[in-house]
Write a structure and sequence with these properties.
The protein has about 325 residues and is α+β, with helices and mostly antiparallel strands. It has helices at about 65-80, 105-120, 125-140, 145-155, 195-210, 210-235, 240-255, 260-270, 295-305; strands spanning about 1-15, 25-40, 45-50, 55-60, 85-95, 155-160, 175, 185-190, 275-280, 285-290, 310-315. The structure holds (R)-mevalonate.
Length: about 325
């Protein structure tokens, strides 16, 4: 049996603007993860068992654009296996779906690595990342590539999307890992509303098409925030991140990707003693994040739950 695990992720700063070439900062969240087990099967075919999404099926009975089927078909294509192996593939995940925590990219990364390892196909991190980016594009339209990158490397990343050119196929985006000068605490609050990234990214695209100069200037302001936040994190001035989060959240509201539920959790967190808060990821539902001193984290988390957060996670960025 071969196993592989991939973490969730949160975007600290720069979501949406990152799709338009501005920098963004993201970190892995190891409290949630996707786990894949691949083993030889006594039955003919490839049997997928994904209890979290109530899926128990042989690969060829799934439509080819099914998210799990497309990962497996595309992997078998790139690895050029001569005969289709008989496999049992078990996929479990604690990452909530369509919530901004990178569930789709985590499944792709863990499944690709487990299949590669089980079939003795050697694959580098760069190849896993490039492959996961291609899969993200199938399902999300115009992703920046930040989700697959932070999840593949499982390290904090400062990410700038490379201007798209067909020959680069998304490979070559500027990916830098950054040092965290002093660890800091983030509370993640889930609205419980599932919101596919594709829709909010599409909504921003429509705004941008109608008034490029207005939205380019919003993206520039977000870029400035990401840039300043990276320096603050590296130098250990994490307290500065609170105001930067609030500013970033306002710009995301202007981009129409927040929601009343996200706005409510953001203000509840700030009233409960957080130093700042913002939505995180695609928005219109999904998760928000708040920055707090370690001694205030529980109080912020409890207030978020009282205000209706379906779940909270306290995580340390280090
Ligand atoms: C989604 O986690 C982040 C977005 O910026 C989309 C992307 O970068 O592909 C909203």
């Amino acid at each position: 049996m071969t196993t592989s695990s991939a973490p969730g992720k949160i975007i600290l700063f720069g979501e949406h603007a990152v799709v338009y070439g501005r920098p963004a900062l993201a970190v892995p969240v190891t409290q949630v993860h996707t786990d894949v087990e691949v083993s030889d099967s006594a039955r003919t075919g490839m049997w997928i068992d994904a209890p979290d999404v109530n899926l128990h099926a042989e690969l060829n009975t799934l439509p080819s654009d099914h998210p799990l089927a497309s990962v497996i078909h595309n992997f078998l294509f790139i690895s050029r296996v001569s005969a289709f192996p008989n496999l049992d593939i078990k996929i479990t995940s604690t990452i909530p779906v369509a919530s901004g925590l990178g569930s789709g990219a985590a499944v792709t990364v863990a499944l690709t690595r487990a299949l590669a390892s089980h079939l003795n196909y050697s694959i580098t991190n760069e190849e896993v990342n490039a492959f996961a980016y291609e899969i993200e594009k199938l399902h999300h339209g115009t992703p920046s590539g930040i989700d697959n990158t932070v999840i593949t490397y499982a390290k904090p990343v400062y990410f700038v999307k490379h201007p798209s050119s067909p020959e680069r196929r998304g490979v070559g985006s500027e990916v830098e890992t950054f040092k965290v000068g002093k660890p800091f605490t983030i509370i993640i609050g889930d609205t419980g509303i599932s919101a596919p990234t594709k829709e909010s990214v599409g909504g921003v695209r429509r705004l941008w098409m109608n008034d490029k100069s207005r939205w380019e200037s919003v993206f520039d302001k977000i870029a400035e925030i990401s840039f300043t936040a990276r320096r603050a994190i590296e130098q250990g001035y994490w307290e500065m991140l609170g105001d930067l989060m609030n500013e970033n959240h306002e710009l995301l509201q202007e981009l129409t990707v927040s929601s009343p539920e996200l706005d409510n959790l953001v203000s509840v967190a700030c009233n409960a003693g957080a130093l700042g808060a913002k939505m995180s990821g695609g928005g219109r539902g999904g998760n928000m994040i708040a920055l707090a001193t370690p001694d205030m984290a529980e109080a912020v988390s409890n207030s978020l739950k009282k205000a209706g957060a379906r779940n909270t996670i306290i995580t340390q960025v280090s």
